Amino acid sequence: MRHGMLRIATVLGLVGLATMWNPAPVGAADEVRIGVVSPMTGPTAKFGQAQKNALTMAADDVNAAGGIKSLGGAKIKLVFGDTRGEADTGVTETERLITREKVHALIGAFQSGVGFPSSAMAERHQVPWLTFGTFDKITERGFKYVFRAHANDTIKARTLIEGLVALGKRASPPIGSAVILAENTEWGKSVSDKQRGFLEKAGVKVHFVENYPYAAPDLTSLIVKAKGVKPDLVVADSYLGDALLITRQMHEQELRPVAYAAGGGGHVQPDFLKNMAKLSDGILAATMWDAAVGKAVPWIAKENERHVAKFGAPFTEDSAGYYQAFQIIVDALERAKTTSARELRDAIAATSITDVNHKVMFLPYKALRFDDTGQNPFATAMVVQIQGGKFRLLYPESIAEPDARVVWPYLATTR
Amino acid sequence: MTRLSASVGLALLSIVGAALVPVATRALIGDDDYWLQVLIWVMFFAYLSAAWNLIGGFGGQYSIGHAGLLGIGAYTSSLLYVHAGVSPWLGMLAGGCLAAVVGGAIGYPCFRLRGAFFSLVTIAFAEMLRVGTELTDSLFGLPINGVRGFLLPVAGSRPADFQFVGKRGYYYVMLGLLVIILTVGWLVKRSRLGYYLAAIRDDEDAAAALGVHPARAKLLAMVLSSFFTAVGGTFYAQLIGFITPTRTMSLDFSVQMVVMPVLGGIGTVLGPLWGALVLVPIGEVTRALWGGSLQGVHLIIYGALLMLVILKWPQGIDPWLRGLVARRRETPVAAQPALADAPVVAARASPDGGEALLRVDGLSRSFGGAVGVRDLAFEVAPGEVVGIIGANGAGKTTVFNLITGALAADGGDVWFAGRRLGRETPDARSRLGIARTFQIVRPFIGLTALENVMVAALPRAASVAEARREAGRWLAFAGLAHRAGVIASGLSTGERKRLELARALATRPRLLLLDEVTGGVDQRSLPGLVRLMQGIRAEGLTLLVIEHNLRVVTALADRLVVLHLGEKIREGPPQAVVTDPAVVDVYVGATVARG
Amino acid sequence: MRGLAQAVTSGLLIGAVYGLIALGLNIVFGTMRVVNFAQGTLLMAGMFMTYWLWELGGVHPYISPLVTAPLLFGLGFAVQHLFVSPLLARERAREPMSVLLLTLGLALVLENVALLFFSADFKTVTTDVSMQTFKIAGLIVSVPRLVGLGAMVATSLVLYLFFMHTDLGRAVRATGQDREVARLMGINDFRIYGVAYGLSAAMMGIAAAVLVPFFYIHPGVGTSFLLKAFVIVVLGGLGSMPGAALGGLLVGVIEGAVALWVQAAVAQIVLFAVFVAILFVRPAGLLGVERR
Predict the structure, then answer these.
(1) Chain C CA closest to residue A209
(2) What is the pLDDT of residues B493-508, one digit of tens each?
(3) Where in chain B are the domains?
(4) Searching chain A, which residue's CA lies closest to the CA of residue C139?
(5) Closest CA–CA distance from residue C166 to any residue of chain B (Å)
(6) What pTM was computed for the model?
(7) CB proximity C129 to B under 8 Å
(8) Residue C12 half-sphere exposure, CB side, CA atoms within 13 Å?
(9) pLDDT tens for each residue of B218-251
(10) Nearest Cα to B517, choosing from B329, B385, B371, B414?
(11) Domains of chain A, with CATH numbers?
């Protein structure tokens, strides 16, 4: 028996020793490490890949141009963490990037539900976190190290509704009533609530908001219910699968609203366009970025073309957001002249850019600043419409494509 | 050294090792929260698996809905904290109690669903809870945000409110919880409850026939399991700071809680720990190495490992580890010949000796159109040995089943010690003093011979130790003392028959029903078995014996009852009966063959 | 009223698809008492096969079962032989838990291997019938789903005839009732199990052919159908083919009706509640045979 105990003790001891071999990664002193927290695997892996592409291109550009000049030409190193789309994995990964990989700043995490607790982890460790995620509360916790340059759910919802009203004013028939169909996930619920609020404020009667189960195989009853109240506007907040299903079943059940709008998500993905052809014509959507902004701001178009050349696809809304976050960090590093967390954070907080040709303006705003909650108060969204299988940028007017006209009502081209 | 000390040793070593490693690591490298986090996850899943194991491994009811209980714990303590200012330490206990009630209330009626049906029902309940919570924005006026998730305030270091900065605090809390749950598991395993559960798991009906309450035992296990799982939920909420029904109560989570103990060793104390130690690091490593390029690899490994373990090593890792540490030894007991040290068999003959102990009156039972037993009547006086004989299909085992309550009678009565037996269940009748052996022996296959008999002795023993002593004596009486430490599956048929006898005797019955004890026993073992039965008889116990072997039964019995096609055709002293022409007629051929 | 009629109609149509999947599960669960958690992933495999046949070979989904069904049969048979039968040989219990866990592991492996090779992208197939509808008495009927209903009815009839009136079918039923006795009767129970499992898998090829024209293809697609299929099998009655078909239709209708009046998500709760109730009140299900 003693022999056995001894054996176990030895094994455990060796295991213990082995885990102690824990070499701190030799972080080159002249290297800036930026952690990227994204879903690299799991159902939303495609988004993570797009984000990776965009950032890789951006980092390569910076390094090719000589790195961070104020740090003596320090090169940027991207370190990726895989959230798998799960909150607790995101938290663990964030921690790993901070404590093991010793990153100087982080960008993440695409899904608001993941970014929410993960950014809290960054706050705990006092490492700057640039958010990509629209959940309002991410920047409403009194945190000092969490920033968001782009629009949150409120801004996106407001933009969509204001855009609809503005575009509808010039067309007929007008919108007097609406239904909102949102999937029952944290994003769908949050966005639909905001949309309802803005619609009601704009004087549109919202008959009902339903949060249907994600990935349901049949939504006929929902469509029938909607049809029953004869809404002028149908708003859908869905990921790709449901977006396809709803659109198809609206067609089947002959629900033809005056306007069909999407809060984002599935309706603005290339796969949606590919599969929906005629039925997608006229769908309006809120987005934070569309390649069409390149028409008003040429350097953006050039960047997009380079991206297409490199990766065979354009930027997406989220990869554009990650790109912007990256540029903000780079800009702050130049000003901070150090990678120390506190000072980098201060530099980010002090960001104030209005030049539309500055790289941070990849998502163009009137200005890029951060208020004391960490949110950019000048962040806006835009409204696009699918026309002939392409997205046309229609609102706000300042960046709208000059030669684009709204198609109204939905499916006007096929009636 | 007994197996007991081996597991204690292992447990201590594991815990000590787990505590030492990060301390040493930190000393060398500096504050490294990453490894602490990994260890926290390992311990967390080990904890949850161990809590599940109480009902899944020990109880044999595989719940695949335990994440629902986790969610109850997480939400209860979080709601109490955010809306009522109750410290999560207390909220943890509240959540645990709530989960215990819910788990017990749902589990109890569901236990009668066997195997896979029970699992499916637990999935159904967990899913209902999950979807329900997703749809609920506020509960009793308190916002819980449904699917959007519930967030806890991050307020820096507040140990009194279960919040720590950095990982160290959480690490030690989790370590403490893990020690607690493993200790609970260990205590349960060696307690009365543990033996009952092990017996129920192997053969619920045989356990009931020994006087064990299967539903009650499982309920207790379920309540414990639910309580501790919910406590784990509170920990999770405090660690992550954000809970959503979609993740917290997900089927995936429930599955993980099942896979780890299965891998590690179902029904063992440390199995869950091994399972977590293997699987959690795999998940971490695959993500760190291949994050981004290979999707879902860790799940492929989980699934493949699960399949491998089920097919090749269904007992899991734990027994293999034990093999390294302690060799299975038969508990050394002085090898006494068969009947020495025979304890006094409970011969509770009634003082006047006249009143029948067992009376069967007009007993009838049919199966569809076929008659099992028709209008049967006989008596057994205290201290008597009555043999029931008859050709196959005469209804003998049916009589036993009717007496023990395994079957309900269509008509007639069974009287035992002056009391009419109505709807008493088999376990209730066992407690009254009726014991039986089965024709096809049904030992608890995963328990040792000693443990088999202990299960029978426990209901009447004041402590586990006393039951063990009793069991040892009965084993000795049955001539199996030298095989006490052998797992029942390793016993020969003759030994199993003796085991059945020892087990039945350990219930201190007043009436013992022996169903074809000599059936299937080889010629060499026969005399020893017969001697045993004579020994039982000699102690004055009342016996009702079904026997095919006429030599054995004529030697043993005071009276014989002959059944044919469900009816009694003859009754009387052995010699008279076996020479009776009517009886010989029924046995034509049989008598010649058996001689 | 029109709304309800429409919801019920559509519910029946999608319920037909559920029924198809439940039929497959029923063969294994109902007659063999094997809890096959991998049924959903077999459906997923069938859908991917159908997809690739269309993408690479231009084979219309409705013809694909000619290829996919035999392939899946082989896959099912192999799985049975390699993994399930050693377990059944070992276990005494009627519904061994180990088989449930084994198939769970198998499902994990299959789903994630598909994820690895085919990525998580949603794939869709748009055929000529994908969006066709026509009207009956003012009710809108989707053509691909009507095809599904037809397939389900035809399949359940064929299966019914197979199980009731052929020797092989009867052998499968007998083995499901008592494999010891069946073995004594000379039935090679392990080969029978292989046939049953293979048949069940082959049916997923038919279900896939029906689904692909109007539902997306994705490694996780099987799981959502799996739980519903279990509910249906229990509701309809274990071992009863008409029961599984009827149960599928019923579940579709319940879903549709509940979604119309309350919320679609509530339908999930209702279904599970029905499931639990059936197990307690009438474990044999609607059309099942009461045991013992």
Answers:
(1) C263
(2) 888 888 988 998 898 8
(3) 3-325, 346-433+511-524+542-595, 438-508
(4) A253
(5) 28
(6) 0.84
(7) no
(8) 14
(9) 999 999 999 999 999 999 999 888 888 888 898 9
(10) B385
(11) 31-151+296-369 (3.40.50.2300), 154-287+382-414 (3.40.50.2300)
